[in-house]
Fold each of these.
Amino acid sequence: METPTPTFWEIVLEFHRYRRPYGSEYEHHVVALLQSVGFVPCAGGIIRWGTNRELFLTAHTDTVGVAGANNLLRVDGRFLVGDGLHNIGADDTAGLIILYHLAQTRPDLTLFAPTGEECGGIGSREFCEAHRDALPRVVISLDRRGYGSVITHQRQERTCSDAFAQQLARMLGRDYAPDDTGLFTDSAVFSRYGSLECTNISVGYENAHCPGRASRCGVFGVADTAIGADGFHAAS
Ligand SMILES: [Zn+2]
């Protein structure tokens, strides 16, 4: 595994500058960062259209917790750590950082950053309502804690097939495997609107939604997961 570069950490810190509840002014900070690499406004959020519109990757721009600055972020080994009192919003800032990198390297991929996921998927519902006749076949949310989940079910409802999850887990490598214990994220909304294969994969954060403990953003997934020509794969 390669050691993350200083530039990498600068980007990680910049994206985590604020906790950003839905509708708060602080959400604009990450929206502006993504617009600097080609995202444009769309129903429910911002999007970077790719040449492939059958596959969407998503990460949401809002976070849980009290709005405000993360003043005491520090790097601890391979983790970003907060003040121990507030969550740092790594859910889903970790996913946004992956979208930011992919926007600069993968013109084929369509990258969607909805708002309001933590309030029931408000942004994704708006998008699906506005694009009912042109929804993607496959939606991969980059919004799962930990290091090895390829989610097949959200709130016990199946959102992708076992065959799809197994294939994606093989592409991702490492410890990735199908996992039926998903809760809810944006891809579940697309599933309800008819997208066929909708999953959520681990992007390396821990302690989601947990103030009172040091929230940590595992950069493992951000640094080393890439998407190959035929889908996700783990970079060597
Ligand atoms: Zn999330």
Amino acid sequence: MSVFSRLISYSRKRSPWVFRVNAGSCNGCDIEITPCFSPRYDGEQIGALMQGSPKHADILLISGPITLRTKEIVKDIYQQIPSPKAVIALGSCPASGNVFSGSPTIVGSAEAVVPVDLYVPGCPPRPQQILEAIQLAAKMLEKGETHSQKEAHYG
Ligand code: SF4
């Protein structure tokens, strides 16, 4: 790996930029994301910043079960994030459908739509867990362990 590539990789670990999508959540998980970037939990201390465009992000945070309506939107947002990228599924909904399980309007696990690198359990998870997952995702990106990097590596 060249010095330049190592520098980019190190920088990515120190400044994970995040884009979030509500794929059909009850808003409970989304309410827990907000304090992550407020003075109380201060995600900027770990370099994390919320971005308004997926094109500027390294990490996609997904909340809620994936609904039939949001499925294509989630896919499209994932495609817009430049590689390498990491995907974090927030709460029980994108993992199993949770309380929405069995509904004819949901697709199922987020895994069925985009490659998920990390699941954060809880209904909803606490801000500390969310920030920990962001840090972990940044480490995975640095080490080349996310699905997007493995896919690129293995062609
Ligand atoms: S995991 Fe719980 S809090 Fe989060 S969207 Fe699903 S039902 Fe709401």
